[in-house]
Amino acid sequence: MRRLTLAGGCLLAVSACAPTPKDVETVEALSEINCSVRPENCAYENSPVKVVDRPITLPKRPYQFFPLAEPLRFTDARRKGWFAPPGTLTDGASIPKIFVAIVGSPTAPEYVNAAAIHDAYCGIGNEGGANYHNGRWEDVHRMFYDALVASGTRPQRAKIMFAAVWLGGPRWNVLYDLERLPVARKQQAMREAKSYVERYDPSLTALEQMLRRLEKRMIREYPDLYPHQNPGDDDRPAIRHEASDEEYVYEEGVEEYYGEEYYPNDPATGGTVDLTGGNKGF
């Protein structure tokens, strides 16, 4: 009888520790703290970004870079501080070149503050900077979303740009990255992410979950490139490919990618925007 009583007590203890719907809502609310929902927490110091009128050209980069003339600080929705010191090189873009035709012009006045802060933590030319790779790559890219919204970028547009740096931007201290994937396959993934955002306008947390599922599926499609990885939480068969930069063809059978119907591709946003917004430098 005593054993039964103890067992019953253990069951009661386990049930008492089981998450309630309110607990789940609390966790979701905490994970969704960003500048879209907590704009009052987000602020720049010494904005707009000020640069030295001395353009610098870096190899294989489509835009000119400018060094910051003065420091730029940003506080995100979680009240974490981010800092771009003087001399930080920025091109006012941050969007990977391979995604520009899909995302649209990455240069506009409302992007340059966010790009400068983001570049301080992972931008080319800033490898010797005090804050370079200072933090997790995921947090740096989330900060980019917050910084875009705080600068006046529409949240839906900021989510598309966030998806671009998630899929094609820098990563560090990782077990695997997406650099080995064919460019055409990553471009297809970016089109899917863009369509998902435009169709559903998901929360940032939901978008990140979608991107994680998408990258796991891509890795499973190329076992020769990732022979020691088993990233799947998706037991549906992956369509495997040989590594190639030829145009990626979306095969039938992948329509159930996320348990819902396939998100159709949308035409890329066209047009360009003056990086300077009519001002010297930025």
What does this 3D model show about the protein?
The protein is mainly α and 282 residues long. α6 runs antiparallel to α7 (183-200). The protein has helices at 2-17, 21-31, 100-103, 112-122, 137-150, 155-168, 183-200, 204-221; strands spanning 43-45, 66-67, 72-75, 81-84, 89-90. It has two domains: 31-174, no CATH class; 182-265, no CATH class.
**Cα radius of gyration in angstroms:** 22 Å
pLDDT averaged over residues: 78
Query: How are the strands of the largest sheet arranged?
Result: 1-3-4
Number of domains: 2
State which percent range the strand residues make up: 5-15%
Note the main sheet. Answer: 3 strands, antiparallel
Total DSSP E strands: 5
- SS-based structural class? mainly alpha
Overall helicity: 25-40%
Q: How many angstroms separate the termini?
A: 78 Å
Unreliable stretches, pLDDT < 50, 5 or more residues? Answer: 1-16, 233-282
Order of helices and strands: HHEEEEEHHHHHH
Count every helix, treating DSSP H or I runs of 4 or more residues as helices.
8
Estimate the global geometry from the Cα principal axes.
globular
Properties at a glance:
8 helices; mainly alpha; 282 residues; 5 strands; 2 domains
Blueprint of the fold:
Layout: H1 2-17, H2 21-31, E1 43-45, E2 66-67, E3 72-75, E4 81-84, E5 89-90, H3 100-103, H4 112-122, H5 137-150, H6 155-168, H7 183-200, H8 204-221
Antiparallel strand pairs: 1-3, 2-5, 3-4
Helix pairs in contact: 4-5, 5-6, 6-7, 6-8, 7-8
